[in-house]
Each structure stands twice: as C-alpha cells, then as structure tokens.
Amino acid sequence: MSASQPIPEHVIDEATDWLVLLHSGEVTELQRQQFEQWKAENKQNALAIQQIERLTHGLSNLPANFQPELLVNSEQKFHSSLKRNIVFSLSGLFFLGFMASCFPWAKWQADYHTEVGEIKSVLLEDGSQLILSSNSYVNIQFSAQKRQVKLIEGEVYIQTAKDQKRHRPFIVKTQDGQVEALGTQFTVRQENSHKTKVSVYQHAVAIRADRLTETRIIQQGHRVVFDDNNISKSIVLQNDHPYWTQRLLVVEKWPLEKVLSELYRYRKGTYFLDESLKALPVSGVFSLKNTQQSLETLAYTHQLELNFYSPYLLKIKNK
C-alpha cells in the first residue's frame, strides 16, 4: 500500500468496531489480545487504528464506567462521522517510524503461519509433519545438532519422523521452555495467559521449563500446562487425536464463555456475553470451518439471541 493510497472502507469499519469495544470500559484481556492479533494481521489495520485515534481524541476521555450498550447502539452514527472525516485524510505520514515501533516482526518473519480461521499442513525436510492451527506462527531451525521448531504464537500438531542419518533430537521451543519429542505425536499451544499447553497422543515427550533444572516426562494420553517456573500435574486426555485438526470443536459441559473463546480463535472480531450466561454448560460438536453455523447452533440449542452490530461485533443474550 502506497503512502497516498486511502485505506479501504471495510478496514475502517473493523477498526471502528475495535475502538468502540476498547473504550467501552468492559473489555476483557482476551479481547485485548484478539485486538492485537487483528492489528498485527496487516499494515492497513494498524494504520487505520492510528489515524482514527488521532482524529477522535475525545473517545479516549470516556469514563471507565461508560455503558458499552450505548456505544454499540451509537456505532452506526460513529462510523458515519468517522468516514466523513477520515476517508480523504488517511495518509502514510510517519508510517515507517510507526511500523518499526508497533509491529511484531517475529510474526511477520515467521517461516510458516496461518491466518485466522486457517489450518495448514507443513512437511519438513526430515519427513516430520506439522499442522498449524488458526493464527499460528512457527520458525524452523534445523542444524547439525538438533531439529527445532520455535512456536511464536498459536498451536501446532507435530508428528515426528526418525532422523535416520544424524539422530538429532526434535525440540519445540516456546516462551516458557522446551518440549523434546521421544518418537511421538503431540500438540503444543502457546496460551494467552503466557503458559504452554502440551498434549501427548503417542509415545512421550520430555518437558523442561526455562527456570527448572529437571526434565519431566509426559506419557501418551496425558496433557500438562507449564510456564517458565512450573509444570502442572498431568491430566488424562479424553480423545486420542486433536479434534481441531479435523476442524471440529468437541465439548462436554464446557462453560459457554470457554466455548465462545475457542470459536473466536477461528473467527475475526469479538463479542459481548451477558454475565448470567458465562457459566452456562455446553456439550456438543461444533464446526471450526463454519463458525457462523456454530454460533447459530449454540443460539438455537440454548435459546440465545445473537445481535450482530457488524460482522466483527456480536452481542449474545437470552431470548
């Protein structure tokens, strides 16, 4: 995108939706992380946010207890005002300096990545297979001493191949430590809470947290969560393969809030959920390929009302 080229209208719409949410006074940490992911997807998104914030300083002065419903209800008027004021004023001034300070270069430079909603299979040079979940980023670093996959963000399923010639270890590095494959199939997920989740579906893995000296072996059929200083107790898996690789979300008595959080890993935008509905137990099989259908199924099954204020902003309440 050249410095003088205007930002597309749909990007302005999305940026406006996010600003409405961020200044509502009720934004959650997960929603903030989703916003950062959206902003990092391409240069246009971040530039739209920057320019809109310059032209709408008053929005940042809203009181913290401002009702989000009022903001949502006035969104259409907000959009119209913004578009009239900025459609001809968006430019590339200060663009390079802004880019250098605000964008996650590690993600941009990743060897492999997936967009939101995408699942991708990658065959490595040693015959090992990776399947990247939605919005995931990895770097591949093979040397004479080891085979390493660095998980920058997201989740990856790994089916390792034997290193016939060199017998190099296969290691997955995360921000919390490392996971070494012991001839295995497993998933590694970088959690939003700055933790790493590991599920082992075949054989075993060895986990070493960055600040721990000992290594912990996790056997087939178990999962653990660890950070740089602690490894949780192992929990028995209920399935013998990760359902998300088949583009399915399978849940049993999950809180509705957790179900929506998982669906929105595969869907752009965010949502408001009534407090009374957060703990509502949900069981079923939902599509990760067609998240709109999954939301409609949830609404039908549990008598919910879905109010879409745009393709990227949803409010959910009881009928």
Summary keywords:
319 residues, alpha+beta, Jelly Rolls, Phage tail protein beta-alpha-beta fold, 3 domains, twelve-stranded mixed β-sheet, 9 helices, globular, transmembrane, FecR
In short:
Helices cover 28% and strands 34% of the residues. By secondary structure, it is an alpha+beta fold.
Task: Give a structural overview.
The chain is of the alpha+beta class. It has 3 domains: 9-103, no CATH class; 109-236, Sandwich (Jelly Rolls); 247-318, Phage tail protein beta-alpha-beta fold. The protein is 28% helix and 34% strand. The chain is built from 9 helices and 17 strands. The protein has helices at 9-22, 29-40, 43-55, 68-73, 75-86, 95-102, 105-108, 256-263, 291-302; strands at residues 112-113, 120-123, 129-132, 137-142, 147-159, 170-173, 177-190, 196-209, 216-219, 222-227, 230-231, 235-236, 248-255, 270-273, 281-287, 304-310, 313-318. Strands 1, 2, 3, 4, 5, 6, 7, 8, 9, 10, 11 and 12 form a 12-stranded mixed beta sheet that branches. The protein has a 3-stranded mixed beta sheet with strand order 14-17-16. It has a two-stranded antiparallel ribbon with strand order 13-15. The radius of gyration is 22 Å and the shape is globular. The N and C termini lie far apart (44 Å).
